[in-house]
Design brief:
The protein has 143 residues and is mostly beta strands. It has a single domain, classed as Immunoglobulin-like (Sandwich), CATH 2.60.40. Helices cover 3% and strands 37% of the residues. It has 1 helix and 9 strands; from the N terminus they run ββαβββββββ. It has a 5-stranded mixed sheet with strand order 1-2-5-6-7, with no helix packed on it. A 4-stranded antiparallel sheet has the order 3-4-9-8, with no helix packed on it. The relative contact order is 0.23.
């Protein structure tokens, strides 16, 4: 029996989707032509937690989704260009900030418990914290 996707909002606006990647178009993950950029990220382990920090400056919280599994996550969304860039009388001198669709898969070094995540967004940096999955040891009785 296939479980339906589960979407949980721990804080208003952050869209987290567990166990179901069907809403994420497969061709956009594979074909890089449709992806304009990938956000930078750091990943480290602290106190039995996997911590991921992702640079999402200029991305509205409603314009991205995070897909979570035990061993990886995908952040998928769009950074919209400022309205001034769409004006006919705008003359470009330098454009280094990437705009448009983004998608990034981040593999975890160890399995995590994604449903127990915590997050914060400060100064354009999204920080996600996932507890490391603890192995359950089942004792075997000798008979």
């Amino acid at each position: 029996m296939r479980r339906s996707s589960t979407e949980v909002k721990k804080k208003p606006g952050l869209r987290i989707i567990f166990d179901d990647m069907s809403n994420l178009p497969e061709h956009e993950i594979i074909v890089g032509d449709f992806i304009n950029w990938q956000p930078f990220y750091d990943l480290y382990i602290v106190n039995e937690n996997v911590v991921v920090t992702i640079e999402i400056a200029g991305v509205d919280i409603n314009d991205f989704s995070i897909y979570l599994k035990k061993i990886y996550m995908i952040i998928d969304g769009i950074r919209k260009s400022p309205n001034v860039l769409n004006k006919e009388d705008c003359v470009f001198h330098n454009l280094e900030i990437p705009y448009g669709r983004f998608n990034r898969r981040i593999d975890f070094p160890v399995p995590t418990e994604p449903r127990r995540y915590q997050y914060k967004i400060e100064h354009g940096i999204l920080t996600l914290i996932f507890p490391i999955l603890k192995e359950k040891i089942i004792p075997i009785e000798e008979g």
